[in-house]
Amino acid sequence: MSMHDDIKNVLVSEEELKAKVAELGAQISRDYEGKNLVLVSILKGSVVFMADLMRAVSIPCSIDFMVVSSYGGSNTVTSGLVKIIKDLDGDLSGKDVLIVEDILDTGVTLSNLVPMLKMRNPNSVKICTILDKPSRRKADIQPDYEGFQVPDEFVVGYGLDYDEKYRNLPYVGVLKPEVYEK
Ligand code: XMP
Ligand code: MG
């Protein structure tokens, strides 16, 4: 059985992702020239984007990882404040932090996380997300770099999961409704 059979439609193809990541990497390389760039990946969703984006960045940079979770919330609903489950390994003082995210949805996660990171005396904190779902935004927050806007549908693939599955799909797609009903 193939996971591709569970996909109703593809929203962003593998080729589109590849081209966009190259574009974002080039732009970030220009914008952060001479700076102290650290790419901060929010696990697990951004792991695929992070792996691709860091190789599209041509200037020296470091990487770090963080695990955060929203309080409450079921699988498909994001709610409440964020809790740091695994903190960064490195010190952010004087660093130019670029948060690497899979999707900016309600914006609740990052609108809570950004001020927490800013308290650590970085030189700057910006956001790079591969997907943006602006129709669902609750918090006043915008990405500084974004890949694709997606409609208000639950999406999977390219790191995004449903019940921890489908992260390894090489494209972004929408699940067939019967998958949720199983
Ligand atoms: P907020 O709402 O805080 O959400 O911007 C951020 C996190 O919620 C998850 N999320 C999704 N995950 N498909 C997913 O697999 C989706 O359509 C989706 N929308 C939100 C995601 O982990 C994101 O980092
Ligand atoms: Mg996530």
From TrEMBL:
**Lineage top rank: taxon:** Bacteria
> Which reactions does this protein catalyse?
IMP + diphosphate = hypoxanthine + 5-phospho-alpha-D-ribose 1-diphosphate; GMP + diphosphate = guanine + 5-phospho-alpha-D-ribose 1-diphosphate
Task: Report the sequence similarity comment from the record.
Answer: Belongs to the purine/pyrimidine phosphoribosyltransferase family.
Q: In which pathway does it act?
A: Purine metabolism; IMP biosynthesis via salvage pathway; IMP from hypoxanthine: step 1/1; Purine metabolism; GMP biosynthesis via salvage pathway; GMP from guanine: step 1/1
GO terms under cellular component: cytosol
What does this protein need as cofactor? Answer: Mg(2+)
Q: Name one Pfam family in it.
A: Pribosyltran
Q: Which InterPro entries match?
A: HGPRT, Hxn_phspho_trans, PRTase-like, PRTase_dom
Chain's role: Purine salvage pathway enzyme that catalyzes the transfer of the ribosyl-5-phosphate group from 5-phospho-alpha-D-ribose 1-diphosphate (PRPP) to the N9 position of the 6-oxopurines hypoxanthine and guanine to form the corresponding ribonucleotides IMP (inosine 5'-monophosphate) and GMP (guanosine 5'-monophosphate), with the release of PPi.
Give the location in the cell. Cytoplasm
Stretches of the chain forming a coiled coil according to its record: none
Question: Which NCBIfam families does the UniProt entry name for this protein?
Answer: HGPRTase
- Protein name, as recorded: Hypoxanthine phosphoribosyltransferase
User: In its UniProt record, which GO terms are filed under biological process?
Assistant: GMP salvage; guanine salvage; hypoxanthine metabolic process; IMP salvage; purine ribonucleoside salvage
A GO molecular function assigned to this protein is: hypoxanthine phosphoribosyltransferase activity
Listed EC numbers:
2.4.2.8
Which keywords label this protein? Cytoplasm, Glycosyltransferase, Magnesium, Metal-binding, Nucleotide-binding, Purine salvage, Transferase
Domain spans labelled Phosphoribosyltransferase: 16-162
